[in-house]
Design a protein that fits this description.
4 helices; alpha/beta; 8-stranded mixed β-sheet; globular; BirA Bifunctional Protein, domain 2; 3-stranded mixed β-sheet
Length: 211
């Protein structure tokens, strides 16, 4: 199993990233390219998945980019780690729920290396941190599947500006909050992306070998 690992140091334009993913999906379907894990960052942008509602927008002056991923509205920007992927589920049992669980497990295990305890919620997709007052989302997940190839990805808030979320109802969830790793524990996260890639690849190899 060959998975290309791509790490971009400079911010990538959202549309350019999605075009790259969709081209890779077609190439994987044609057996021309390897699967992909891509770590990057976007400049400020609000994106809306296929299930978003206009009522999820609080500040009507912001620009929303509609996408074909699952989920609702979220924010991307500096200080947020984005992990995009193009992964062939034909090799992994064609089970999207198991794949989402694999992503959740990858994030939870990676954050545990930094002594941060997080959890998944069956009712609200994403990864959550239990604050004293209420549950707060620290990682968002948005996936689309075409020809049993999964793409788009997930994001982990590290040191991003949380005030940006005041313009929207993040992921359409009204009764929970949003946080980032620096708010939870002010430590060095410079190696987080490498830890994340290692755990993600390990989980993907395990899922393929179980078939």
């Amino acid at each position: 199993m060959n998975i290309e690992i791509k790490k971009s140091e400079k911010p990538i334009k959202y549309k350019d990233a999605i075009n790259f993913l969709e081209k890779r999906l077609l190439d994987i379907n044609a057996n021309k390219e390897n699967e992909l894990i891509w770590i990057l960052e976007h400049n400020d942008i609000y994106t809306a998945g296929t299930r978003y509602k206009k009522t999820d927008i609080i500040d009507k002056s912001i620009k929303i980019v509609e996408t074909n991923r699952g989920g609702k509205i979220t924010y991307h920007g500096p200080g947020q780690l984005i992990c995009y992927f193009v992964i062939n589920l034909n090799r992994r049992g064609k089970d999207i729920r198991k794949f989402i669980s694999l992503i959740e497990d990858t994030i939870i295990k990676t954050l545990s290396l930094y002594k941060i305890k997080t959890f998944a919620d069956n009712q609200n997709i994403g990864i959550w941190y239990k604050d004293k007052m209420k549950d707060k989302k620290v990682a968002a997940i948005g996936v689309r599947v075409s020809k049993w190839i999964a793409y788009h990805g997930f994001s982990i808030n590290i040191s991003n500006n949380l005030e940006k979320y005041n313009a929207i109802i993040p992921c359409g969830i009204r009764d929970k909050g949003v946080t980032n790793l620096k708010k939870i524990s002010n430590q060095d996260y410079s190696n987080l992306k490498n830890d994340l890639i290692k755990n993600f690849v390990s989980n993907l190899k395990t899922s393929a070998s179980l078939l």
